[in-house]
Every structure is written in C-alpha cells, then in structure tokens.
Amino acid sequence: MNALSLLTGLFRSNGNTAATSQPSEGDSMPFIQPNLTAVLDSLSDAVLVLDPVGHLQYANRAWQRLTGDERPPTGRLFSDYLHPEDRSNWQQRLVALEAPGISDTRTTWLRLTSPEQDARWFEIRLQPLDGQPGLTSATLCDIHAQVQSEQRMKASHRGLSDMVDRLPVMVYRSRNDRDWTMEYISEGCYDITGYEAADIVELRKHAYGSLIHPNDATRVWEQVQEALHLRRSFEIEYRLFHADGHIRHVIEKGCGVHTSDGAILAVEGVIFAHEPQVTDLTRRRAS
Q1: Are 231 and 243 in contact (CB under 8 A)?
Q2: Distance (Å, whole) CA 140 – CA 46
Q3: Largest CA distance in the chain
C-alpha cells in the first residue's frame, strides 16, 4: 500500500475532516484512522494533502522534520515554504492538476526553505486524491544530495570542456565510418581545419573524412581499422585540406571504444598540427 492509498483511506474513514481528529464514539471502524495516521507518521518522506489553492489540509510528522515548523500545518500555504524562484513553477503545476481528466502522477523538483537550513531540493509527486474532489496528495522525497552531486559533476564537466577548448588541438569522438562522422569535436577544430566545430559535427556542413587528402585517406582508414581490430591505440600522420585551401599536415592519436563483446562504439582521440621537417629527400620526393 502506497502513501496515496493510505491517504485515501485516512480521509474516507475520517469523513473528510481534519486528519488529526479522533474517531467519534460509535464509529464503525474506530481503529482505521489512528492506525493509518501512525503508518503515515512512520514514513521518512513527507506526505501532504492540499486544497485547490495549495493550503495544507494534512501533513505527516516528516513534514515537521523537513521544515522545522512545529506549528499546526492545516490552512498554511505550501508555497510559503518554497524558494521564491520556484513559486511560479509550483503555481503552474497546481493549475495543471485542475485540468479535466487529470488522474496520473505529476512529478517536479522544487526547493524548500526553512530558518534552520539552506534551501534543499525535493522531488514532489502530485496526484488528485481518489474520491476526494478538490484535494491533491503530495509526497516529498529529499533529493538534495543527488542534485548537489549532479551539479558538481556538471561543473566539473564544464571546467574540463573549457580546458579542452583552450588547447591548440582537436579532441574528438567519431563513428567508425569512411566519413569519420564526428559526434563531438572541441573548439580546437577551427585552428586545425579552419571550420567551426558545429559545421563538422554530425556532417552538418562538412564531413571530416572529406578534408583528408585523397592520397592519404585509404592509408588512414586501413591503419585505424587495424588498430581497432587489435584493440591498440594508433598514431598517424596525414594531410588535410584547410578551409583557406592550403594543405595542412596533422598527427592523429586515438583508440577505439568497444563494448564488452568487442563491437566498436566509436573512435576517440586528438589531432594536432604538425610541421614536417623538410629534407633533401623530402624535396626530391615532392618534385
């Protein structure tokens, strides 16, 4: 039995009166209301019942623990406990529940504030209370640690991405096809190729494979395929056509990304400009 079922039973057995009232003498099932209240109070998640405006009609003991508010909850506006930036979102969610035919659960993330602690993130699940027109059940699960972890991870990724974009190299992830379809390229792409990264990712304007000098393209493909087959890293020198028309020498170092059964998911690596040493032998070959 979930919290919604418990609440439905609580309000039905209680005649839709305040949830903290005691059963009257002669009640046909006097044991149900206090038993359900005890079960709801034992939950770690806050369980609420709200009227159409958002006034609290019921709150279990977890609500007091989360908010630090020991005052009777009945009649207080739920939005008063929300972070100011989340109140507009909350009102939109509340209005959406009044739409005809709404019976499923709606989930959102909001922050609660209290005098004792900083704002904390909660996942709030809303659903019309079965058999109780105009009433909505809400369960609040504390997800603050999860949100903080995700925020730190995103900040770390942003920092890493910014660092990579400042490097004078092109970091990439591509599919293993003849076009070398790029799924990701760092901003160093412009310094290497003369094209913006967005123009090459997912073949939007140019295929990276089309930039490779035709006399080098087959050799590059074959050497990468051999390395992927042997599950080794590779290092290849070849020529690219720069956006301004000149030929640019580059060195690419990379490796394959494989599934546990050996299928190739992608090729990842780094490409940087290379100025080959000009020797008498090189001049004779060029001539």
Answers
A1: no
A2: 5
A3: 110
Q: What domains can be seen in the chain, in order of their start residue? A: 3-148 (3.30.450.20), 167-286 (3.30.450.20)
Q: Is the dihedral of CA 157, 160, 162, 165 positive or negative?
A: negative
Alpha-carbon gap, residue 56 to 7, rounded angstroms: 14
How many Å apart are CA 108 and CA 143, to the nearest integer? 11
Report pLDDT digits (tens) over 152-188.
776 666 666 666 667 789 999 999 999 999 999 998 9
Question: What pLDDT score does 220 carry?
Answer: 97
What's the pLDDT score for residue 155?
Answer: 61
CA angle (202 as vertex; 223, 213 as ends), nearest 5: 40
**What are the pLDDT digits (tens) for 10-62?**
565 555 444 443 334 444 334 346 678 888 888 889 999 999 889 999 999 99
Please choose, from the candidates 112, 120, 115, the residue with its C-alpha nearest in 3D space to the C-alpha of residue 48.
112
Question: How many Cα neighbours within 13 Å face the side chain of 214?
Answer: 0
Instruction: Output the CA–CA distances (angstroms, integers) from residue 181 to 184, 216, 247, in the order listed.
Output: 9, 17, 21
Q: What is the DSSP string of 8-74?
A: HHHHHHTTTS-TTSPPPTT-SSTTHHHHHHHHHHT-SSEEEEE-TT-BEEEE-HHHHHHH---S--T
149 CB contacts (<8 Å, ≥6 apart)? none
